[in-house]
Design goal:
Layout lengths: L1 H21 L3 H37 L3 H26 L3 H35 L2
Length: 131
């Protein structure tokens, strides 16, 4: 619980400093925002790594194929990374590039999940044909 207060404190301090610097040196404001973001990513990565370990143990307990868990973890990773990059680009007033990053992230997610979608459709087709 105290971790969230640390994260909020760092975020508010970095955001306020970036806002203050924006009027004087825009490039320093952007650099401050990027450094603050990088510092905030450290606890997030630690939390996500423990969640990934939990997914692995869940797969072992339930008998879910490891490939499915890997796809879920990769999909979440791509979504978080693409969203993070897009938000940084939007903060830098690069909305056009940000939208391309979001599109690329969605395309990569579709590419990664396609084998599972294909397998699911094959199972459905086989079930319908066996009736």
């Amino acid at each position: 619980m105290t971790d969230i207060f640390k994260i909020i404190g760092i975020a508010l301090t970095g955001g306020t400093l970036a806002l203050f610097l924006k009027d004087y040196r825009r490039e320093y404001a952007m650099l401050t925002a990027l450094i603050t973001t990088a510092v905030l990513l450290v606890p997030a990565i630690n939390i996500l790594s423990s969640i990934i370990a939990d997914f692995a143990s869940l797969a072992n307990m339930t008998g879910i194929r490891r490939e499915y868990i890997e796809v879920v973890v990769k999909t979440l990773g791509i979504a978080y990374i693409a969203e993070f990059a897009a938000q940084v680009l939007k903060d830098a007033e690069q909305g056009s590039i940000a939208s391309k990053v979001e599109l690329a992230g969605k395309a990569m997610i579709l590419y990664i999940t396609f084998p599972i979608i294909k397998e699911f459709l094959e199972v459905c087709i086989n079930a319908v044909n066996s009736i």
